[in-house]
UniProtKB/TrEMBL annotation:
Coarse class of the protein's main subcellular location: cytoplasm
Function field: Specifically methylates the N4 position of cytidine in position 1402 (C1402) of 16S rRNA.
Annotated Gene Ontology cellular component terms: cytoplasm
Keyword S-adenosyl-L-methionine belongs to the record: yes
GO biological process, one term: rRNA base methylation
Record-given protein name: Ribosomal RNA small subunit methyltransferase H
Lineage per the UniProt record: Bacteria, Pseudomonadati, Pseudomonadota, Betaproteobacteria, Neisseriales
UniProt entry tagged with the keyword rRNA processing: yes
Top enzyme category: transferase
Binding positions for S-adenosyl-L-methionine per the UniProt entry: 36-38, 56, 82, 103, 110
Length: 320
C-alpha cells in the first residue's frame, strides 16, 4: 500500500533484479526507492544476513520506505540525493557493496499527483522539486534566471528547437506578472512552439528541461557513477535504467571509459599484466522492456538498462 493514491509500476522489475545477481548474504543499494518495487524484490531474494540500503529525495517515497524499514530490519532508508552515496555508506559503516541499482528520473506518483507541479496536464504551483525540503522551485528559478540561462537549459535538457523564443517569452511575461503555475507556463510555451510533434504536447520538452535542471538530474548522475563503481566488491554489479537519451549518453560513456584499458600506442609492446586493468566490465547488451511490458506500461517504452561488473583490479585514484 502506498501513502498516496498514486501507483508506480516498476519498469524492468525482474530484469533489473536478475542483473544484480543477488547473493543471499550480500549488501545492496537501491539508489531510487520510489515506491519500492525493485527494493521489495531484492529483499525477497536476500537471506536473513543480507542488507539493502535505499535512497530517495522524495518525502512520499521516504514515508513509504519508512514503513518497510519498520517491518524489515535488513532494510535502511536514506533521505538524501544518491550523489551522497559514498558519504552515506561511510556514515553507515559500509565499505563495499555487492550491487547498486538506479532506476532514474521521476516516478509516476510524482507526475500523476498534479499538486507536485511536474505536469502540464494539471494546474498547480510550478514546483517540480523531487525533494520539497530543499532547493528552489521551477517558479522561483524562472522568476530570477537570466534569459540566456533559461534558453540554454531548455535547449540542452529539452533538445527544444524553439528554446530562444520560449526563453524570450518567459522573460517578457515575467515583467508583467510572475509565472507561478504549470498552466501559465504550458500556455506560454504552446504559443511559442510552432511545429508540433504528433502525439506530443508542445510543452513536453520545456517541462522536461526545467525538471532536469531544478533537480540537477544529470549532475547527480555524473557524480554517483564513480562512487558506485568504487564501492563495489569484486564481482559486484551495477544496473542502471535510463529513460531518455541525455541520461543514457552519460551512463554509456561512463561505462565505456571505466571498462576500457588505458590506450597505448599500438607499437608499444606490453605484457598483458602490465596493462592498467579497468575497474568495470560491461555485462551483456543493453536491456529494453519486452513488447508485453510496453503494452502494459507505456512508460517502459523508453527504458534502457545497462549493466556492469566490478573486476578484480584494485581501485586507483584517478580511475573513471
Ligand atoms: C523511477 S522512480 C523509482 C521507482 C522504483 N524503482 C520503484 O520500483 O518503485 C525514481 C525515484 O528516484 C528518486 N530520485 C531521483 N533522483 C534521485 C536522486 N538524485 N537521489 C535520490 N533519489 C532520487 C525519485 O524521487 C523517485 O522516487
Amino acid at each position: 500500500m502506498s501513502s498516496t493514491p498514486y501507483v508506480h509500476r516498476t519498469v524492468l522489475l525482474a530484469e533489473a533484479v536478475a542483473a544484480l545477481a543477488i547473493k543471499p548474504d550480500g549488501v545492496y543499494v537501491d539508489c531510487t526507492f520510489g515506491r519500492g518495487g525493485h527494493s521489495r524484490l531484492i529483499l525477497s531474494q536476500l537471506g536473513p544476513h543480507g542488507r539493502l540500503i535505499a535512497f530517495d529525495k522524495d518525502l512520499e517515497a521516504i514515508a513509504e520506505a519508512e514503513k518497510l524499514a519498520a517491518e524489515d530490519s535488513r532494510f535502511t532508508i536514506v533521505h538524501n540525493g544518491f550523489e551522497t552515496l559514498g558519504q552515506e555508506l561511510a556514515r553507515l559503516g559500509v565499505a563495499v557493496v555487492d550491487g547498486v541499482l538506479m532506476d532514474l528520473g521521476v516516478s509516476s506518483p510524482q507526475i500523476d499527483d498534479g499538486r507536485r507541479g511536474f505536469s502540464f496536464r494539471f494546474d498547480a504551483p510550478l514546483d517540480m522539486r523531487m525533494d520539497t525540503t530543499r532547493g528552489i522551485t521551477a517558479a522561483q528559478w524562472l522568476a530570477t534566471a537570466e534569459e540566456d540561462e533559461i534558453k540554454e537549459v531548455i535547449k540542452t535538457y529539452g533538445e527544444e528547437r524553439f528554446a530562444r523564443k520560449i526563453a524570450a517569452a518567459i522573460v517578457a511575461q515575467r515583467e508583467l506578472a510572475p509565472i507561478q503555475t504549470t498552466r501559465e507556463l504550458a500556455l506560454l510555451v504552446g504559443q511559442n512552439v510552432r511545429t508540433r510533434e504528433p502525439g506530443q504536447d508542445p510543452a513536453t520538452r520545456t517541462f522536461q528541461a526545467i525538471r532536469i535542471f531544478v533537480n540537477r538530474e544529470l549532475d547527480e548522475l555524473k557524480a554517483v557513477l564513480p562512487q558506485a563503481a568504487r564501492h563495489l566488491a569484486e564481482g559486484g554489479r551495477l544496473a542502471i535504467i535510463s529513460f531518455h537519451s541525455l541520461e543514457d549518453r552519460i551512463v554509456k560513456q561512463y561505462l565505456r571509459d571505466a571498462s576500457s584499458v588505458e590506450k597505448l600506442p599500438s607499437w608499444v609492446m606490453v605484457r598483458a599484466d602490465d596493462m592498467a586493468r579497468p575497474p568495470l566490465e560491461t555485462v551483456g547488451k543493453p536491456v529494453r522492456a519486452s513488447e508485453e511490458e510496453v503494452r502494459e506500461n507505456a512508460r517502459s517504452r523508453s527504458a534502457i538498462m545497462r549493466i556492469a561488473e566490478r573486476t578484480a583490479a584494485p581501485w586507483r585514484e584517478g580511475d573513471a
